[in-house]
Amino acid sequence: MKIGLIGTGNMGGILAEAIADGQGIYPSNLYVTNRTLSKAEELKRKIPQIHVCQTASEVITNTDLIFLCMKPLDLFPILNDNQALFTDDKCVVSITSPISVEQLETIAGCSCVRAIPSITNRALAGVSLVTYGKSCTDEWRKKVDELLSTFSSPVEIDNSITRVASDIVSCGPAFFSYLTQRFIEAAVSNTGIDHDTATILSANMLIGLGELLRKEFYTLPALQQKVCVKGGITGEGIKVMEQELGDVFDHLFEATHEKFREDLEAVKKQFN
């Protein structure tokens, strides 16, 4: 199987590196292109065996499974301009949440899938969110699932929870990185610890926390109970968080869903 990636920006590049490191295919079977070709060439310096193509049509022609790794409003022109190349033996995968598989199917006459990756996939970890179109054959379902399993845990989701699931899986690392950065900055500002030491301690704390959850030693509530001894220091910190955080996460999901609705409307106009 030959795989194509159209778009080698942040997520496209991460996806290419994850596919190569996960050994789902030989890197020599990976074909990539980007609107700014220098970005594709930069990726080739990291993975020398991949093929850099001049155009999207060249990628589609030479591959079986094509990932569209671009912003929502940039995807429609690629589909529309190359419609005849998406023959029924191929499979096209969009990695952007505002575009549904049903919309892909209105243009591409092949198996259609939406697979939303996460930056955690770069470490061959975390979840990828998958929604299969009605046009997707059982053979392509199996192939896509096997490929995603080489660098992630694929979770099939219904279209109705696409945004919130993506907030958790795909945006979540950025949200919690921001919280951790604020945590580190507060430690440096209020105590004698230096920034590098606070960063090392915080990073390793997060890695350890992840291992505790992965190995299912504790649930999140059980972990808090275990650390938060009655009358202890942790409890005082939790009280502050309860008071200060308030409805911040409610507002976070409200904001992401509002932006999602705007994107849906913009995409809808293109596909209609």
From TrEMBL:
<dbReference type="InterPro" id="IPR029036">
    <property type="entry name" value="P5CR_dimer"/>
</dbReference>
<dbReference type="InterPro" id="IPR008927">
    <property type="entry name" value="6-PGluconate_DH-like_C_sf"/>
</dbReference>
<comment type="similarity">
    <text>Belongs to the pyrroline-5-carboxylate reductase family.</text>
</comment>
<protein>
    <submittedName>
        <fullName>Late competence protein ComER</fullName>
    </submittedName>
</protein>
<dbReference type="InterPro" id="IPR053790">
    <property type="entry name" value="P5CR-like_CS"/>
</dbReference>
<dbReference type="Pfam" id="PF14748">
    <property type="entry name" value="P5CR_dimer"/>
</dbReference>
<dbReference type="InterPro" id="IPR028939">
    <property type="entry name" value="P5C_Rdtase_cat_N"/>
</dbReference>
<dbReference type="InterPro" id="IPR000304">
    <property type="entry name" value="Pyrroline-COOH_reductase"/>
</dbReference>
<dbReference type="Pfam" id="PF03807">
    <property type="entry name" value="F420_oxidored"/>
</dbReference>
<feature type="domain" description="Pyrroline-5-carboxylate reductase dimerisation">
    <location>
        <begin position="163"/>
        <end position="262"/>
    </location>
</feature>
<dbReference type="InterPro" id="IPR036291">
    <property type="entry name" value="NAD(P)-bd_dom_sf"/>
</dbReference>
<feature type="domain" description="Pyrroline-5-carboxylate reductase catalytic N-terminal">
    <location>
        <begin position="2"/>
        <end position="97"/>
    </location>
</feature>
